Amino acid sequence: MTTEIATHFGEGNEMLRLATAGSVDDGKSTLIGRLLYDSKSIFEDQLAAVERTSEQMGVEHTNLALLTDGLRAEREQGITIDVAYRYFATPKRKFIIADTPGHIQYTRNMVTGASTADLAIVLIDARKGVLEQSRRHAFLASLLRIPHLVLAVNKMDLVDYDEKVFESIKAEFRDFARKLDVADLTFIPVSALHGDNVVERSANMPWYQGSPILNHLEEVHIASDRNLVDARFPVQYVLRPHGAEFHDYRGYAGRIAGGVFKPGDEVMVLPSGFNSRIARIDTADGPVEEAFAPMSVTLLLEDEIDISRGDMICRPHNQPTVAQDIDAMVCWMTEQSALRPGMKLGIKHTTRWARAMVKDLHYRLDVNTLHRDEELSELTLNEIGRVRMRTTVPLLIDEYRRNRETGSFILVDEATNNTVAAGMLLS
Fold first, then answer.
1. Which of the 8 DSSP states describes residue 318?
2. Structural domain for 74, as ranges
3. Residue 227 belongs to some domain of the structure
C-alpha cells in the first residue's frame, strides 16, 4: 500500500460506516444513544429535548433511544421503523451509524441501511438469547458481504452480569455463524442502558478481557476491505468547461469503484475496447499523483476517445465481465407488485441504465431457516430470491463478493420510477 493510500486510510481520516441490527427491543437505538452521549457527540439542546420527552413518558432515566428514533410514530410506539443515520467522530475515526429496524416487515429497510456498511453490530437480549430475528439479521449481514460482524450481548445488567449467560449465547451464535460467510466475528457483553462496555470498560464484568464497543470500532482494520486490485472507474459525466484556458480540456468525472489509478497508467475504455494512458488526475483540491476507491476524481486521457456516461475505464489486462445474461440475489422492496418471470424493469448498474427482463426465478430464500423454496413463482415485499435476467445492453460487472460497487444494482419500475428491488450479482 502506498504512502498516500495509507495516509488516507490512516488515523484521523478514516470513515467507518456501521449498521446496527437485531431483534425487536434488543436495545439498538439505546446503544447508539449511549455511544453518542458518552462520546460527547450530542448538543445540549438535543439532550434537553430527550430529557423532557423521557419525563413526559414517565420513565425513571433519560431514554437515550430517543436520540435516534426520529419519527413521531417511532417515539410513540417505542420501535424503530425507518433507517436513522447519525454521525459522530473521535480523535481516531469518523463514523456514520445506520440504526436499522428489527421488525421482519422492514427487512428492506435493513438491507438499505446495511448495504454500504463496513461493520454490523447485531444486538441480542441476554435474557432471550439468540432469536429468529437475530439469525435473520446476521444472515443478511453475511449476504450483503459486510466484512466485520460484532455480536453485542445487551442487557447484561438484567442477568446479573453472569459470564455463563454470555458464554452460552456466544457458543450458540458461533454454531449458527458456521453456516454463514463471516470473515471477522467479535463478541462483546454490554449494558447499553448503564454504559457497560460501550465507551468505557465495565467494572461489573471483570471476566471480560476484550475491548469495549467504541474502542473496537476505532481499532478494527478496514483498509484491506477495499478492493485496491481491480481498477474500475464508471464514467458519470464528461467535462468540457468553457473558456480559453480550458480549450483542450476533456475530462471524465466519476467515483472510483475499485483499484488505484496513476498518471501514465495504461487503461482501456469499455465497451469500445480502445486503449489510452492517463494524462492527469484532477480533484476538487487540484491534481493528484494517484487516486483510489472511493475517491471522486476527473481522469484526463492522452488520446481523444468517444467516451460517455455509463462507460467504464479499467486496466487492459484486468477487465470486468461484459454480460447481458446475469444471475443475482434480489431483495424485493415494494408491496405494489411482485417480481415474476417475464417482468420488464429498468436496471441501474454503476452509472449505466438499461432495461431488463426477468427470465427465471430460481428460488426464494427463507432468511430465517436458510431454506431454498423452489416452488414459488414470485417474490413479494421483503422477500429475497435468486433470479436470472437479460438486459438490453451489456453490463460491465464483477461478482458482488469481489466488488460491492460493480457487483450491485437496483431495479426500477419504469411506470412509476420507484425503486422496487436491490440486487447482488453472482458469478
1. B
2. 3-222
3. no
Identify whether residues 56 and 132 lie together within a single domain. Answer: yes
The neighbouring-strand residues paired with 84 are 99
Is 179 domain-assigned?
yes
* CATH number of the domain encompassing residue 302: 2.40.30.10
Q: What is the DSSP letter of 420?
A: E
Residue tagged 458469478 (cell numbers) = 427
- Using alpha carbons, select from 392, 328, 400 the residue that is nearest to residue 360: 328
Please check whether residues 157 and 179 belong to one and the same domain: yes
Burial of 248 (0-12, 13-18, 19+ CB in 10 A): exposed
In a domain, 192, yes or no: yes
Q: Are residues 273 and 135 in the same domain?
A: no
Place of cell 428460488: 363
Q: Is the same domain home to 264 and 408?
A: no
Q: What are the start-end ranges of the E strands in 116-208?
A: 119-125, 148-154, 184-189
Strand partners, 314: 232, 268
How many other C-beta atoms are found inside a 10 Å radius of the C-beta of residue 323?
A: 14
**Straight-line distance from the first to the last Cα atom of the chain, in angstroms, rounded to the nearest whole number:** 28
Give pLDDT tens digits along the chain (427 positions).
443 444 444 444 688 999 888 776 777 777 887 888 777 766 566 666 665 665 666 666 655 555 555 533 443 444 434 566 788 888 899 999 887 765 566 677 778 778 889 999 999 999 999 988 888 888 888 989 999 999 999 999 999 999 999 999 999 999 989 888 888 999 999 998 888 999 999 999 999 999 999 999 999 998 888 889 999 999 999 998 776 566 678 999 999 999 999 999 999 999 999 999 999 999 999 999 999 998 999 999 999 999 999 999 999 999 999 999 999 999 999 989 999 999 999 999 999 999 999 999 999 998 778 889 999 889 998 899 999 999 999 999 999 999 999 999 999 999 999 999 999 999 7
Q: Is the whole model's pTM more than 0.85, yes or no?
A: no
> How many domains is the chain partitioned into structurally?
3
Half-sphere exposure of 136 (CA within 13 A, CB side): 23
**90: which 3 cell numbers?**
473521535
